Amino acid sequence: MKKFIGLFALLMVLVLAACGNSEESSEEATDESAAGETEGDSNESGEMVTYTTDAGEEIEIPEDPQRIVILGMSYFGNLMHMDANVVGAHARVTESEVLEPYTEGIELIEEGNIEQVMNVDPDLIITFNSDENLDKLEAVAPTIPIDYAKWNYLDIHRELGKITGNEEKAEEWIESWEAELEEDREVVQEAIGEDATASVIEQFAKDIYVYGTNWGRGTEIIYQGLDVKVPEAVQEEVVETGWKKISAEEIEKYAGDYMFVGTGDSGADNAYKDTEVWNGLDAVQNDNVIEFDSPTFYYNDPYSLEYQKDIIVDALTK
């Protein structure tokens, strides 16, 4: 009996010791895990690096940004295509049927709503240099103001890759895109001829605009990608500035053999289409008018460009 009691006591000591060791090991593992998570978060955030803005100002930005707010809506699709860490975007990107699906899980920020920006705790903000709230945004997080007119659409894609640490992904798409355009260019040139011209116009409210070769709305594809010629007046008066406001009576001056026409905004009545000038254009007479959805064609990011290219190439080779 005494032997049994002794064995039982010894067994209990061993069990209690094992439990104690297990709890201690568990606590140590938990502590190590927590330390590892903290260290990992720190590494993801990365160090700060110096970046020179389009205005020549040197600012400090995260080397590896983890919480990007993109208020320069033209660049939303670029960042999403290269898997950048976007947590907030200008709400207007949802107007594009191409980009809207990519906004799931992202805070949609209304124009000028600084509180919304603050609530998503960004470590980097990217916007246009014309943003009226630059000072307020800079107080929230490092802010890069981009001059839209300064950048070719492919160069800004590369630059955004550099800013977000996705240079390789950005370059891969550019190489693939240029290869696609090379094939499409041959097909289009054969269909319309090497000397055919095209114009891109659009109405906002009561104003009509004609666009240059790098201002969204398919211009990058039509002129740069497919080498469709630019009408002389557009080349001389519009290309350098990117766009020009014109009257309905002036459309003929800027018209090409093909007319790409945007639907415009909600205030556009497109009354110019009822004028003698419009109906007398060669493009109208020859059924070479191609209409496009303005909110979807504003953009020149990879997703939008691939969508637009199919429409443009099909229209020119019908």
Automatic annotation (TrEMBL):
Q: Which residues does the UniProt record annotate as the domain Fe/B12 periplasmic-binding?
A: 67-318
GO cellular component annotations of the record: outer membrane-bounded periplasmic space
Does the keyword section mention Transport? yes
- Which stretch is the leader sequence? 1-17
Query: Keyword Metal-binding: yes or no?
Result: no
Per UniProt, subcellular location reads as: Cell envelope
Annotated spans, Disordered: 24-47
Q: What is its main location?
A: other
Q: Which Gene3D superfamilies match?
A: Nitrogenase molybdenum iron protein domain (3.40.50.1980)
A UniProt-annotated Pfam family: Peripla_BP_2
Q: Record's superkingdom?
A: Bacteria
Concerning InterPro entries, the annotation shows: ABC_transptr_periplasmic_BD, Bact_iron-sidero_bind
Keyword vocabulary terms for this entry = Signal, Transport
**UniProt-listed GO biological process terms:** iron coordination entity transport
The family classification in the record reads: Belongs to the bacterial solute-binding protein 8 family.
Record's protein name: ABC transporter substrate-binding protein
